[in-house]
Amino acid sequence: MRAFVRNHKTGISVIGLIFLVVGLLEAWGFTAPARGHLSARFDLSRGHYRVLAYGLPSPWRPEYARLLRERYGIEIRTVALCIVSRTLVSYADGYNEVSAAAANRKFGHDVFKECAEAASQSWEHQRALNVVRQ
Asked: 74: which strand partners?
């Protein structure tokens, strides 16, 4: 066995390196929520309020983003559309958990719900006007 290891050191090293890389990639996925929390805390410490969005956007998302930015200085950053990995979902959810709670504490109410309702109503109003015009 020792002779085999001695004669095949390079091959065994390559296989070991492959296993190490695969293991680290798997571990990286498990740390996504914690990385999201830390990243949000870092951004908040610099005064940057933002939320991470993923998935198919609602038709009123541009208006929602505008309201959050203009009223409260909160930025929406789209990190993915329809195809989202579990790791990215975990990261974004961890980030938003910290960031949204901090924004709601700062402003004293659920600013996201307020802006979502206003944007939705505005979009419905514009849609109704377009139907009447046609």
From this structure: 49
Nearest-CA neighbor of 33 among 94, 80, 81? Answer: 94
- Whether 5 shows a pLDDT value over 60: the answer reads no
Kindly state the helix (H) or strand (E) to which residue 62 belongs, with its residue range.
Answer: helix 61-72
For the record, the structure tokens of 110 come out as 């659920």
CB contact at 8 A, 54 and 81: yes
Domain extent listing, the chain: 31-133
Report DSSP state, residue 73. Answer: -
Q: What is the pLDDT of residues 22-60, one digit of tens each?
A: 877 777 778 899 999 999 999 999 999 999 999 988 889
What phi, psi does 49 have (nearest 5°)?
Answer: -100, 125
CA angle 70/105/67 to nearest 5° reads: 15
| Cβ atoms of 94 and 40 closer than 8 Å | yes
